[in-house]
Amino acid sequence: MKKITTLLLLSVVLFQHLPAFAQNGKPLYTAPLGVESYTFRKSFPVDVVKTLDTIQMMGFTEIEGTGGNLPPAEFKKLCAARAISIPATGADYNELVKSPEAVAETAKILGAKYVMCAWIPHKAALTIEDAKKAVDDFNTAGKLLKEKGITLCYHAHGYEFQPYEDGTLLDYIIKNTNPQFVSFEMDILWIHFGGGDPMALMKKYGNRWKLMHLKDLRTGTKKDLSGGTSQENDVPLGTGEIDIPGILKEAKKIGIKHYFIEDESAHVRQQVPQSIAYLKGLKG
């Protein structure tokens, strides 16, 4: 606990030393402070309560996902006791296809309004056949979830930027899923890593984007269409090569309301407070 407090104090120091241009104007980031549970994937299985205490102390009021192997009702109760809501949770692709009713029930217990799916099964490279199957599966599962008051969001992972016709397979997926049943979550690192432009995609597809993962990519990282890179290429917000302020401005315009900091590195306890301080220091 003392280490966490020290890190938070260091974050304040970092905030105080942000460039002068970032200190003028109104706060740019005004949404609730959210975190993706995967960020704490190593600590949740060890002690859910202590992990949630850490998340609360860092200032988070929203979380996406669950932690450990607790029943959804128990996890929600622990979060609620710390004034943390769960607007979104995740579901495996195969789980969505086989048991969409169970996925919807879990989401409702958690109080989540969104269910995100972060991976389309495929081999070396995503193909149009993979994309067509995903479109059918997402439309089917999304319809059932919508009937239960839940919105399905596909979380693009960067491998969808295989060229197809006059665009990419991501364009194909977005254009062919039913907007009534299927929306999207933008992970700005993976979109950028796959060669996409987060701001251009938000301008192109508007409110099809409902959720966002906030993360930054180490400057100079080699990019490809694998959907994967070293976890050590996850760096604190504002220290990598992604245009965070520009993305946040566009996200505000299209109405994204839930943002989740996600850090896949092994330095979560150092980097997450830095990312929080950066977000709070942005003006624009």
What does this structure look like?
Helices cover 42% and strands 16% of the residues. It is an alpha/beta fold. It has a single domain, classed as Divalent-metal-dependent TIM barrel enzymes (TIM Barrel, Alpha-Beta Barrel), CATH 3.20.20.150. The strands form three sheets. An eight-stranded parallel β-barrel has the order 1-2-3-4-5-8-9-12, surrounded by six helices. Strand 6 and strand 7 (167-168) form a beta hairpin. Helix 1 (2-16) runs parallel beside helix 11 (268-281) and helix 6 (128-147) runs parallel beside helix 7. Residues 1-23 have low confidence and may be disordered.
Helix-strand layout with pairing:
Layout: H1 2-16, E1 34-36, H2 48-57, E2 62-64, H3 72-80, E3 85-90, H4 93-98, H5 100-110, E4 114-117, H6 128-147, E5 151-155, E6 163-164, E7 167-168, H7 169-176, E8 182-187, H8 188-193, H9 198-205, E9 209-214, E10 216-217, E11 234-235, H10 244-254, E12 258-261, H11 268-281
Parallel strand pairs: 1-2, 1-12, 2-3, 3-4, 4-5, 5-8, 8-9, 9-12
Antiparallel strand pairs: 6-7, 10-11
